[in-house]
Each structure stands twice: as C-alpha cells, then as structure tokens.
Structure to design on (65 residues):
C-alpha cells in the first residue's frame, strides 16, 4: 500500500498541516501509521468530515435519530 505524508494530504484536502495531524492523532483518518514523529496516510484515505460545518452538524443530527 502506498502512503502520503501529512504535507501531501494537507495540499490534497485543502487543509492545514496541523489540522491533518490532529485528524491523524484523533483517529479520524482510517489506516494511518505513526513512524517516529511522522504520520503515513494511505493514498486512498478520504478527508474526514469537518465537524465545524453546517453539513457535519446535519449529518450528526440524522445519525442520532
């Protein structure tokens, strides 16, 4: 399986490096591997839903029902 770095994922997902690191450490990205101080993210990983958006809150409301 091929992996990408946090910097590559940040560019691909239009997010900051710190935000991607936070998603990785929080378990929101499936299949990440921590090697030393670096996160390796699978190339086919999808961007987690940003919980600060209206769409994410709507998704959470549907899941609670």
């Amino acid at each position: 399986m091929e992996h990408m770095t946090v910097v590559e994922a940040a560019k691909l997902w239009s997010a900051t490096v710190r935000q991607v690191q936070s998603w990785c450490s929080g378990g929101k990205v499936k299949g990440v591997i921590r090697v030393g101080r670096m996160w390796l993210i699978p190339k086919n990983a999808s961007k987690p839903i940003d919980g600060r958006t209206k769409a994410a809150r709507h998704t959470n409301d549907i899941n609670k029902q």
